[in-house]
DNA sequence: AATTAAATTTAGACAAAACTAAAAATATTT
DNA sequence: AAATATTTTTAGTTTTGTCTAAATTTAATT
């Protein structure tokens, strides 16, 4: 597996979670910031290697073999993210780019030792589940903050948007994984919500509320 | 800098330590397990980028810019080796290959944070010096065990040959960095030496004695 | 000094992964 | 259903890093 092939597998994996019945060529191209024609070429190669099923004009999906591979890449990515945050004191908006590189280091022993060193974390710093050695991951039935009724106490468990800008905003507001959140008031006119987060009252926009996972 | 370019710089750096007045094309090819013609191509490119000085048939050497780059790569390699041994419990014969991959991850912040996390080590698990952020490294005036006179107590501080086979041999004999060594007897006929290592008496071949650095 | 040997470079080719531009297939509108 | 728009694929190039085989330069030997 080359780095490029791994990047394709990872993107197809992520897109499959949203559209399970075949991933569009254009969607892949968008994610990888490449051209559709390049994607077509690569899909043929990946189909040849039997990690992807691909039929002209029908989009692509992972074979079982491809799924196993993709989960390994996701596992590596997320474990390195935990390492960077927990051990090297990176903030959660800084880790993605570096993990994009680290995820391609392929030693099984390395990744399993790292997993043990980090004490087998179940989730990465954005609340996304980390596949274990067998590819299994914990699923927690999270909801968007925007779907929670008034006065219900909940806990921040992840983010939907994990862009640096959003994460930096959350940092600034001192909102973090584990923060206790209660919605005090929803204003239907402008969709702002008044909330109490870790004992502090503040106002959030709908954009924030639809990108924060709580439980 | 691509991974391939970095590998060339690193190899030229290592070979320069032995032959400071220009590194042979063939020597580079040997180290990288590639062909001389490929090396010629790459040397032209590196000269273009002003990290190497290169004149046809005259061999290559690093420019100042190239030296700075090369030391960064060596720094990354050796810091990752320390990480693998100290934090992930790898043995010293297992780390080289993995560090060969990790050394190409380029974030400055990553490597400086790793350095701090490891408490700014001066030497890697084979006793080789680790350049600091400025490229400076500690030099210790080590000698080969074979050059030490009889009955002189010395301490193992590094290995010349760092092949897995040699390191595994040392492991088996319980010889490690810091081991206390005293030569009891040298047999000039077959060049075997009788030594006391950490209170235990054993016999070493000349091949071992000429590949162990002591102080 | 001439010859042979070794090292190095040139020339031309190839595979991987990307690209552009044009063609073909599928979707969407009218 | 025809026309238009969008998506996807094909065909042909480009770049990077490698290769082989032949040519050239330097080094070693007789």
From TrEMBL, chains A, B:
Major localization listed first in the record, in broad terms: cytoplasm
Domain HTH dtxR-type: 1-63
Xref: SUPFAM superfamilies: Iron-dependent repressor protein, dimerization domain, Winged helix' DNA-binding domain
Subcellular location: Cytoplasm
Entry keyword set: Activator, Cytoplasm, DNA-binding, Manganese, Repressor, Transcription, Transcription regulation
Signal peptide (UniProt feature, chain positions): none
UniProt subunit comment: Homodimer.
Family affiliation: Belongs to the DtxR/MntR family.
Job description of the protein: In the presence of manganese, represses expression of mntH and mntS. Up-regulates expression of mntP.
Protein name (Swiss-Prot/TrEMBL): Transcriptional regulator MntR
């Amino acid at each position: 597996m080359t780095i490029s092939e791994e990047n394709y597998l990872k993107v197809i994996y992520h897109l499959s979670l949203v559209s399970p019945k075949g991933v569009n060529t254009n969607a892949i191209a968008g994610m990888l910031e490449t051209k559709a024609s390049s994607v077509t070429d690569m899909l043929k190669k990946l189909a040849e290697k039997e990690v992807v099923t691909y039929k002209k004009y029908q989009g692509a999906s992972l074979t079982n073999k491809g799924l196993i591979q993709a989960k390994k890449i996701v596992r590596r990515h997320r474990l390195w993210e935990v390492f960077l945050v927990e051990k090297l004191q990176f903030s959660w908006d800084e880790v993605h780019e570096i993990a994009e590189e680290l995820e391609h280091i392929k030693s099984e022993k390395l990744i399993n030792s790292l997993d043990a060193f980090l004490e087998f974390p179940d989730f990465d710093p954005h609340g996304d589940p980390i596949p274990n050695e067998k590819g299994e991951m914990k699923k927690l039935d999270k909801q968007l903050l925007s779907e929670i009724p008034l006065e219900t106490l909940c806990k921040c468990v992840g983010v939907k948007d994990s862009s640096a800008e959003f994460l930096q905003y959350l940092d600034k507001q001192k909102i973090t994984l584990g923060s206790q959140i209660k919605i005090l008031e929803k204003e239907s006119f402008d969709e702002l919500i008044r909330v109490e987060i870790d004992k502090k009252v503040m106002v959030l926009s709908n954009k924030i509320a639809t990108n924060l996972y709580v439980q």
